[in-house]
Design goal:
single chain; 142 residues; alpha+beta; four-stranded mixed sheet; transmembrane; membrane; Peptidase M50 domain-containing protein; transmembrane helix; Peptidase_M50
Length: 142
């Protein structure tokens, strides 16, 4: 039973991360038309296929975009890129809350809510902390 719960948490977390990073990817393709790499999980034990890197050790992900594309963008485009993942998690959380009445939906709501809160706090390597670093770097760059 414990193994089943951990496996369920692991699989739901993978879905949350993929949705989150897919939102960043879509916005990056719309704004800059180019993405260097999409990483789902850790660099440890990762397999790279074209521009996608996958790892069974899932603690996050990222979408890499060339710095010169970001540096030549306005601040609203950069904010849109960094907040798109949290927004996608929020939309899917609302959909689950409204339509999926099961343990899977409840688990998704809890883990997605946790992901939204963590990524909204400017702590180590969250969307908000990286956004603040990029804005600070842009002020020096321009």
């Amino acid at each position: 039973m414990i193994l089943y719960i951990f496996l369920l948490i692991y699989l739901v977390n993978i879905i949350i991360i993929i949705i989150h990073e897919l939102a960043h990817y879509i916005v990056a393709k719309i704004l800059w038309n180019e993405v260097e790499e999409i990483v789902i999980g850790s660099r440890i034990l990762s397999i790279k296929l074209y521009k996608v890197s996958l790892s069974p050790i899932i603690f996050g992900g990222r979408v890499d975009v060339k710095w010169n594309k970001v540096a030549n963008s306005n601040i609203y485009q950069i904010i849109l890129f960094f907040l798109s993942g949290v927004f996608a998690n929020f939309i899917t959380l609302i959909i689950c809350w409204l339509y999926i009445k099961s343990i899977y939906g409840n688990l998704y709501i809890i883990l997605s809510g946790f992901t939204i809160v963590i990524n909204s706090i400017p702590i180590y390597n969250t969307d908000m902390s990286i956004l603040l670093k990029v804005i600070k770097k842009l002020k020096k760059y321009k």
